[in-house]
Write a structure and sequence with these properties.
six-stranded mixed beta sheet, binds magnesium ion, binds adenosine-5'-diphosphate, 9 helices, transport, 24% strand, alpha/beta
């Protein structure tokens, strides 16, 4: 199911720089004996907006979770903003502070207000004074168009509002890269658009983004590259026009015939 993107998109700041944001080379990962990611090679430049598509179980979530070390890879290299991900906790902390992540199920703290969700990490991890963290959080809550919900608890909000809080919470750490793992998959159809609109605005501001999503309207309108994964491998990647209109592999064709 895919939401058409109806509004004009401002591409003036969507520039892709020569600077490499993420470099993945011959990366392999196993869950026990199950070989989940196979020889992943991927270079992401600053300003790129990449959509990762593929059937359920193909390894999309595992790949993006490896990029901020929510999962550990066993072979090959992952370098984020010039920092290689190894077991060195200093590197992991550095990378996590540069990379924001938004999940399918929001993962907000239910016992904290919206504002507290947004200020927790800036205050305790970044050591930012509370007043300043709150001012920043309010700025981002305005950006995602829910400043009036700041003192409510997540359970009092709609799914679309909760996901926008999750995006605002990530932005409060001022990441240089944003990872999205099916951010609209748990939402009722009428709430998908408000979350996609927030993501489009981020793209328009030049954020480097990797999005696992089935929203092919978003992919067509916003992505500069679509990556198709199957069985733990990157099978095909292309610009959205050619990806959708001229898929090369049989697996991609089959996938597209099922979702479009
Ligand atoms: P996708 O996001 O494309 O649906 P995932 O990355 O979630 O795929 O999963 C890829 C494969 O790895 C699936 O077969 C899944 O069952 C398996 N898997 C995912 N997480 C774990 C885990 N923690 N332990 C063992 N197997 C896992
Ligand atoms: Mg997944």
């Amino acid at each position: 199911m895919s939401e058409p993107i109806t509004r004009e998109i401002d591409r003036s700041q969507m520039q892709i720089s020569d600077e490499v944001a993420i470099e993945i080379h011959k990366m392999n990962k196993w869950y026990g004996t199950f070989h989940v990611l196979r020889d992943i090679d991927l270079t992401v430049h600053r300003g790129e907006r990449i959509v990762i598509a593929g059937p359920s179980g193909s390894g999309k979530s595992t790949l993006i979770r490896c990029i901020n070390r929510l999962e550990e890879h066993q072979a090959g290299r992952i370098v984020v903003d010039g920092v290689e991900l190894t077991s060195d906790i200093k590197n992991i902390d550095k990378v996590r502070s540069e990379v924001g992540m938004v999940f399918q199920h929001f993962n907000l703290f239910p016992h904290l207000t919206v504002l507290e969700n947004c200020t927790l990490a800036p205050i305790w991890v970044r050591k930012i004074p509370r007043k300043q963290a709150e001012a920043t959080a309010m700025r981002y809550l305005e950006k995602v168009k829910i400043p009036d919900q700041a003192l409510k608890y997540p359970g009092q909000l709609s799914g679309g509002q909760q996901q926008r809080v999750a995006i605002a919470r990530s932005l409060c750490m001022q990441p240089r890269i944003m990872l999205f793992d099916e951010p609209t998959s748990a939402l009722d159809p009428e709430m998908i658009k408000e979350v996609l609109d927030t993501m489009i605005e981020l793209a328009e501001e030049g954020m480097t983004m990797l999005c696992v999503t089935h929203e092919m309207g978003f992919a067509q309108a916003v992505a500069n590259r679509v990556i198709f994964m199957d069985q733990g491998q990157i099978v095909e990647q292309n610009n959205p026009h050619d990806f959708f209109h001229n898929p090369r592999s049989e697996r991609t064709k089959l996938f597209l015939s099922q979702i479009l």
